């Protein structure tokens, strides 16, 4: 077709600086034209050459009246520049950080405290319809709460986005909302306990990275339980993939887990004297990033918050001291040094202070620990013998031990928090909130980023499945004539990572080889995937790195260290020493480990594909998940966020008077319209004509105009709508 200038026609053209710039079309465009005559908004005229191959026209700009819409699906044109422009206008002009895209809430991180989270605002959203109020995280929470009660169905809120986007903050506001609107009447203050789990988990699972001062280094899924009257009665959380490497290493300008700095900042407290703590710059495990302080954060004060939250959750003072003891022990362990005796063996300096303190704090024998830090036991079929290890090996084993203790402590705390939040009365329903670490890419990316990005890839796939794929399949099954949406399918990328002969499979294989190395693994990756998988590349200048094209970005991973991190070797004899500790808590941490530890001296307690993650379990509800999923999908047919069809639905909305809304926009109604539209070649563009401006919002927001007052432009050929 061709464009004719009627009023004025604006387009978006790519710009290296501003990403997109808008320009007005000065001359009619006819098919075959090689250039467009444009005038940039800033006044400059420009001849815009069209790609001779694709002949693709630039995306059209929405009429001004639509800009600032609170639901992106209300835009006439929904493409990248339209989305970005709309979000920008809302944010810059009106400080609005929330916008809907159908049932999805898009949030912009304002990086400043906005006065929109008070109790008055919570009350304002409580009981309201999503469409009646400004977009808000509270509106999403309210919707989940309402649907749980109205439809008797459990709900989930999934928060996703790159690192620093505001996921954890949003998840906390959602939890606060539930705690406020559905607080229990009992004296137990369950909802306060549920909220108190946040500071605890953040202190042991969050850290400063170059992207976010409070970056979650683990994934968390919390299910908030409700009783029959929809009051909070408890919660249960699962955690995923804690970044253990951070315990022993931090990149430049990053920190270890907050809790370590909170401890160091509280070193002078009388009750902490025995921990022999000091400045965070004194410990190898807290000083490597060279950035022990976060602007605006008082670690000593945070420590008080952490302790208070622990107390609220029933973790007794003596248990708390036990936890701090172990954490301090980890710091001292990190300062243990080794001296090479020869290339295959090493020693620890006599009466080495860091080790003395470590052994004191852990309640274990110095001589025994010192011995097993420098030796390992090897078992063959017929005999076992003891062998010294090199200095490098010893350092790696020390670090592996520190990580192992920390990870077990982390899990122990999660267990305890779960016990404290365990409902004492029967749970009727739940709302789940998923907050994971965001997709990330740094200058140097290693195994941890690989795991995080793999997890995000899985999550995105889950989202796609939920929002697009299953819905479209449903249409197809029902033979609804719907234009298929071209959404990004992550499955090829997930296959590259987790399928047989995929990146992880090859990594596991390499780990089993006696002479396996990062380099030979890299070679195997190249041999298997290079030029065969479009999502896999090799950097031109390196033989020790690979690139994966993730949904969010291309990421280059350095192979060095992958094998070691995947194997995560912990020496059993060291664990045995810790288990012999006279302190109760330490053996408790390693209680469940018998099954995991293999009879050989080294125990690969490595990663398991995400789908089979051994996770701290939330209570299983057999058979419920799949049943529920089906119901959800069926239900979604009437709550579309289908981009290409939103134009049509929008018009339906416009011509649907308020009180008849629910009845009129039924599947059957839409289907009838679709059948009528099916044969129209131009149907996707049906309403994309810039001269027709429809001030409507979608979904849930029927037009306030009365049917009689609306004139359907005859040119649209939609006269039949009023007869349906
Ligand atoms: N709604 C908001 N209002 C004010 N500040 C915010 C908001 N959301 C996020 N921030 C700021 O941004 C910071 C980072 O947000 P947050 O920790 O939630 O990111 P994240 O998405 O969880 O990142 P990661 O994946 O690294 O865990 C917060 O510490 C806070 O300072
Ligand atoms: Mg976070």
TrEMBL record:
GO CC, any one term: membrane
Any Pfam family matching the protein: Myosin_head
Coiled-coil regions listed: none
GO terms for MF: actin filament binding; ATP binding; microfilament motor activity
InterPro entries: Kinesin_motor_dom_sf, Myosin_head_motor_dom-like, MYSc_Myo5, P-loop_NTPase, SH3_Myosin
TM regions (residue ranges): none
Stretch list, region Disordered: 597-633
GO terms, biological process: actin filament organization
List of residues binding ATP: 161-168
UniProt entry keywords in alphabetical sequence: Actin-binding, ATP-binding, Coiled coil, Motor protein, Myosin, Nucleotide-binding, Repeat
SMART domains, per the entry: MYSc
Protein name in UniProt: Myosin VA
UniProt source species: Zosterops lateralis melanops
